[in-house]
Each structure stands twice: as structure tokens, then as C-alpha cells.
């Protein structure tokens, strides 16, 4: 459970000039402050218009016509079971003391009772009062004065039953939003498959395209010569807390949200009350008459619907583009001169202020940021905008959605901020390990990739391709620091060996991968989306140094398609299946018993599968499908064998794409088989259908249900399954073990391999596959560029994996020896000045007497000498690899290197021990 942060007893708390000392007084002061923010603001003119229009809209019948069908239909057990796993555990309960764990572990009878409760509130349009109660715990904000009520963040604890009901309603509301396209494409906040990175990428590419227009030879011409931009980032004061409920209801009805759903939302928002708890002392309840509940599942979607008409209003401003992520709103105004861009920016600011006044919101002009984006430095000081009565001038940087923009889009300020953010994280990583203790290397790699590299790569698809080379170097420094912690390698270790041993990509690799991913994401959007339009455009380039994700992404696409054929990106699934739609009589079986596991002999696996298949009806229609891809990534093909009850067979072959995973090829095969089956005239609809696949990943994906599918191919499979099931045919999907001698499965596998030879050029490729292919290509290109040397001799073009099965000290020795810089080497210590001799203070010569191996005194104790030549370790080499002269590639074995390092250290310890 989340622990409440206690406010020190006896510490006075300031509240609008009054001083609260007792805990009860503090709780009352907090509640008074929070309730005052969420009070209902009276505005006679707006309220009169709102009530009049609401009366008209409320008089209309719901889309369901009172039949409570479609989106208004009762919730099903399938919907309930789909949402229960999404309940977040280890969260504090609300006033009813019911935890999410209680709900997730309910049995069948309790689930049925819970479903009846949900359907009663849904059908009546009323919500229990307990669902509209909250307990607020104030949490001090970091760096703020704890004696002020405004310096605490309110954390509202609400009923988990209410949150479950919200999830059920939110799933339906989200489907309606997607189906009817209620939210403009400029809004990417809290939308499935969209992210802040997309808006940032659109902004960067739009500015670069404007700069690349022809330089004016005389008077600048708007829309034809190089553009200048004014970027404004607005801040709404307490955007979620001041939304008028009646106005929200009006907007939902205006947008066409079903009346039944709108009525439930209205009932859920009205008459909300909360009490504040301070050090165990509870205040009185106060009403919260406006705003969206904190922590509400519905709140983000409701806000995006609330602000949809703001985007419509801003579209009327010429030369201005809108970027919204929930309540974070930014506008980019362009012009042939900075004065023209400023006038348009002022018009956008006035439009936002007018919209806020109309809907009882307030723009915090003092928090609004402005930035000039121009190739001319003199333009930076020529922007001044008035926002809600406050004067806003252009700054040197602007922070938007976690990324700091500068005038030239070099992102130097952002890279410096990232370094400040990441260095403490690297220090945390360093405290998780030492020379002889700590996390395993696999765990260290996980932390480094997620905690350190993840912070560096936030929204990197937008800004990293545009960053200058000098700023990429800053990112590389932080990645190398994390790599040294993971591997224990020394500061002088060559960067290519260090990054390879740590399993971390370089900044240049990340740049190319993220650019390709961003281009693929943009290309997967529907036609007409502004980001898709930018991705498809090919404006002339005037500035050679101005590169963004589109150009770098196309370079990567060209490397992925050596033949020159363009990559066809599959459009993402824009509208998922309705959550209330019944999945039909479709069953999934993902095992054949304990003997079907991969570690069992093929004969046992085959026998277990045959016993399982014998339990199905013999007169069923059988589909055996399989997928194949060369090396698991290239030239995918799907094959299926359809066997009817009378023994007749049909073969199906389908190309799955020149870039393809085996799982995706399996899905292509299954979709093609179902299409063939349903298109057969006079097919037998009285017999069951048994579908056998050897891909657990594909079956597990489909088992999540039709509404959970996120790819077109999986959605098409479910449409076909539901269509077949609607005729009364039960469908069983059974996993079978691969390559264990099942004749029909082997035949399907052969069909899939034949299908991989089919033409692949017209088959679309999904974003995930493109991203993985780009990562492989970037890695291969980086490895090809490795300089010749000791590390490349060992690994060639391969990448080392984590050292496993060895203690931390041995793992560090393995990495250092393979990287070529070993802290136990006399030659290395002398080279860096740590082992001076009377004859030579410091040098890098391997012939220097001070660099000789202390064990054999024959030559310098370089890693090559220790691992391959030192006569004192001949016995160890013979025992480990069967020869005293192993090859360099045999040093890829972690155990061999660790044993030789341990043997060398043992020899040194004997020399140090007095006789």
C-alpha cells in the first residue's frame, strides 16, 4: 500500500493569513483550500446559454432508442474479466477500504454479483454515493515551503469499485471516440497508440521544412520563402480542477456521445465530496462542485473531449499549427518575417484566452513560454506577446512536454539537462555493484537500459535525429559511464569494446533506430493526419546541416531495402472491436500437458499432442497453419492446410513480408486460411472447426479477445472467427509442439517455406518489425566500423552477451581482458603511470622491462599474453580447451577467460607470498 507522508506535528501551517497548529485545523485548512479551487463559478450569460442548449439536447432520444443496445447495452462478464487485470495493485483503498487485490481475486459467484452491481448503476444512470467520496492525503512538494497549504500535492483515495466501473465505461467511451473520430488529430494525449513524441516530431520537422524553403532574394513572400516561427506553450491554471460539469455534459452531447453514457458520467461527477486526513486526523467533508476527480480513469478522456473545440477554434488562425497533449497546449505560428509570425501568435493567444473565458477556465499568462525559431539571431529578441493580460517575451529556450527547445533546434540545452538528470541515476547504478559484490550482470544491464538509457532516450525520435554531433557526444559520455558500471571496465577502455561488452547502443545507433521508428509510426497514421502528411512530403533541402527524423529515417529505410523497392508500412488499427461485442464460441488451448514442454524428447511431445487432438471431434474441419521466416526476420511466408470431414484437403500459401517475424507469419497464415474457409461456397456450417498452430505467442495474443487486438491482421482474424461462430460453429484453437513428427503440422511448415518464396514487395510491414530491422541494421553497421584490434579479433562481427555463471570479480576480469585493458596487467599499469620503474617512469612500449609479465618474465603481460601465451597458464588452457594453444575465438567462452584470469591471479599471489 502507498504510505501517507506525515506532516510533522506541532508545525504551524499557513492558510490565507491564518495559522493552523492542531492536526484537525490543518486538515480543515487543506480541505478548504482544495474545495475552493473546485468550486462552481457562476457566470450568468454562459450559464443561461448552456442550460438552454442542454434542455434542447436532453429532449432528444439516445442513439439506442431506449433499447439499451450497442454501446448502451449491459456490461458482459467478458468485459469485466478484461478490466479486472488492469486494476493496479498495491494502491491504498478508498473510504470503503476495498483494495484492488480483493476485486482481482474474486471467484465466479462474487464476479457475477459484482457484474449485477455494475449493470444496475449503468442501467439506472445513478452511482452510489460511496463512489463519489474521496479521502485526500496532502503530500509535500519537493523544494516547496511545507508551511503553506499550496506547497502540498493532494492525493485523492477513491473507491476501487468506482474505478472498476470507470474502466468499464472508459473502454466504451474510448471506442466511441475512435469510431466517430471525436477528438482532432492534433490532440495526442491519452489516445491509444499516440504519444507526446509524435507532436514533438511534427513540430521539429515542420520548422526544418520551413527553414529549407528558398532564401528571399528581395522582399520575403509568405509561403514561398524561408519561414520564421513563433512557438508558444500555454499553461491552463488547474485545468482539470475547474471544469464545469454542466458545460462538460453539453460538450459531450454536442459531440454525439450517446445520451445513456453521458447521463452516467454526469451522475458520477455530481455531488462529489471529500475529506482530508492529516496525521490520522480527519476533516469534515466538503463538496467539490467542479472539476474532474483526481486519479479518475475517465478524467483524461473527458478532458480531451472537453478541449476538442479549442483545436477547432485555433484552426481558423492562419499560419498556425496546434500541438496538444491533454492540457499541455502549444501553437507554432509561421511567417515570412518574425513580425508576421508574432502577429499570428498573438491571434492564437487571443483565441485561447477567449475560449478559456467562454468555458470558465483561466490561462496562466505568467507561466506561458515563448520562443523564436529562426536562423537569424537578431529575430530572437523581437517577439512580445500578451497572454491573458501578461507580457510574454521570447526566451532562449522553451520546455515543452519534457524537451527543451532552442532557437536553432540543436538541442544543446536539452542534452545538458539530460546529463544533469542522468548522472545521479548512474550514481545509483554504481551503488548497486562493486568489484566483488552486487547485482548480476543481466540485472545491471536491465537497470542501465531502463533507468539510465531510458531517461536519455525520452522522445528521442523527435529531437535526437536533429541534434548536432557535438551534442550526441554528450549523450555518448553518459552511456559510456553507465557501461563502465555494468562491465567494471576501466576509463581508458576503447569505446566500441566498452559499449559492446555492456550491451548498450551508442547515441548514433539510437538516433538511426529512433528516426526509422518515428518515420514508420508517421507512415502508419491515416491519410490526412498532419504527421503523416509531413512524413510523405519531400520538400527541397536548402540547408545541408538541417536534418531531422524524416531524412534520417529514409536513409535507414534505404539500407533496409537494398533493392531500392520502397517499404510499404502497414496502417495501424485505428478502431478496435467494440468491447461489448461477444467473442462467440471460441476456445483457446495453449498446452498439451506436461509432456509437451520443449525440454522433452520429440517422441513424447508428439504422443502428448496426439492424445490431446484425439479428444476433439473426428468429423470436424481441421486447419493446420504455420509461419516461416528466413533467420526469423526475413521473407516471411504463411502456409495452411485445410482438411474437411470427408478427407478433402486445400492448401493455402501467403506472403508475409520481406521483413517479418515468425509470429507475424503465423498470423498471416491463419488469416489466409480463415478467409479461404469463409469464401468457400456451400461450406459445411454444421461441424466444429479445429485450428492447430505451433506458435504460443500468436495464440496468446489472440486469446486476449477481439477488443484487445492492436494490429490489423489480428483484428481480421477475430472478425473471421466471430463470423464463423455466428453461424453456430464452435471453434477450438489448439497449440501443438513444433518439429516433433506431427505429419499435418510438418506439411503446413513446408507450405509456409514455399510461401516465403512468393513475391513480397506488396506486403505491408508493421512498425514493430521495421523498428527491429532498423536496430539490427544499425548494430551491424556499427560492428562493421569497429577498428581492427584485440576485441575485434575475439568477436569478429558478433556481440558479446552478459557474463553468466561467474562471480562479480571474475565477470569484471572477463570484460577487461576481452576489452584489452586489464587492471591486473603490469604493462597497463606502467602505461598509465601507476607502475614507474627507476629506468622508466611511464611509457606505452610492450618491450619496456617494466611491462614484463611478473609470472614468466618473457614478454609484456598484455591480455593476449595472459590468455594465449603465458607458459605458466599452459595447464589451465589444456584443461579448459584441450590445447595449450587455443584460438582467439575460443576466448568468447566466459568460463575460459575467467579460469585463465583466476589462474594468473593465483600465480601472482604465490609470487607475493614469502617463502
UniProtKB/TrEMBL annotation:
InterPro entries: DNA/RNA_pol_sf (IPR043502), RdDP_mobile_element (IPR052560), RNaseH-like_sf (IPR012337), RNaseH_domain (IPR002156), RNaseH_sf (IPR036397), RT_dom (IPR000477). One of its GO terms (molecular function) is nucleic acid binding. CDD domains: Rnase_HI_RT_non_LTR (cd09276), RT_nLTR_like (cd01650). It comes from the Eukaryota. It comes from Amphibalanus amphitrite. One of its GO terms (cellular component) is DNA polymerase complex. Keywords: Nucleotidyltransferase, RNA-directed DNA polymerase, Transferase. This is RNA-directed DNA polymerase from mobile element jockey. The keyword Transferase applies. Residues 617-757 form the RNase H type-1 domain. The keyword Nucleotidyltransferase applies. Residues 120-405 form the Reverse transcriptase domain.
